[in-house]
Each structure stands twice: as structure tokens, then as C-alpha cells.
Amino acid sequence: MQWRNEIDAHTENMKVLVWHGAAREANPKELKKYDVVLTTYAVLESCYRKQQSGFKRKGSIVKEQSPVHAINWARVVVRAPVSLCASIAMSNAVVVAG
User: Fold this and answer.
1) How would DSSP label each residue in 13-43?
2) Quick check: helix, strand or coil at residue 44?
3) Residue 91, SS3?
4) Rounded mean pLDDT of 34-51?
5) DSSP 57
6) What is the pTM (predicted TM-score) of this model?
């Protein structure tokens, strides 16, 4: 992943996690151990939707806590996907919290 390679090339001793795929870490305490957590907009949106609206499982709606949304991040940088950029006329969004 290019972002991880860039972080490794330009920093020293930063703990980087690529948070992607079916076996993602589900414990917010574990995520907090990293200096940088890299993921996609699609993963963030899916986790948020499952937390807020839930999803159907065996005929009932199940809501699932999102580990990334449970953390009060110091900084969140989102590179929005092209489809989202076109609809809101922006290429990048930067949110600083805390």
C-alpha cells in the first residue's frame, strides 16, 4: 500500500496498521496502539452504517459497534473516492478532532 510505504520512508518508528479485509481488528484498545491506522472510505462507511442502521441477520436487524468510530482520534484524513468527490465537488477532506 502506497501510504504505508510513504510513512515508512519518511518517518522513524511509527506503528502503522492497514485496517482492511475480513480479519480486521475489532478491539478499539488494540487500534489505539498504532500511530497510524490506514483504511478505505468504503470500510469506514460500512462500519458506520452497520453501527447506526444495522444489517439483516437471520430475519432480524443487528447493530454492530464500530471500533474505529469508538475512538476519539486526534486527526482523521480522508481521501474521498472519485464517486463521492463528483457528488460533493471535493477531492480530499481533512478533519481534525480533539
Assistant:
1) S--EEE--STT----HHHHTT-SEEE--HHH
2) helix
3) coil
4) 90
5) E
6) 0.75
Find the mean pLDDT for residues 76-95: 58
**Distance, CA of 71 to CA of 97 (rounded, Å):** 11
Cα–Cα distance between 55 and 63 in angstroms, integer? 7
Do 6 and 16 form a contact (C-beta atoms < 8 A)?
A: no
Count the residues in the chain: 98
The residue to which cell 478491539 is assigned: 27
Sign of the Cα torsion 81, 86, 88, 90 reads positive
The C-alpha cell of 24 is what? 480486521
Distance in angstroms (rounded) separating the CA atoms of residues 42 and 84: 11
Residue 74 and residue 53 in contact, taking contact as beta carbons nearer than 8 Å = no
Q: Is the pLDDT of residue 85 over 60?
A: no
Instruction: Please state, as a whole number, how many other Cβ atoms lie within 10 Å of the Cβ of residue 47.
Output: 20
The confidence score (pLDDT) of residue 96 equals 43
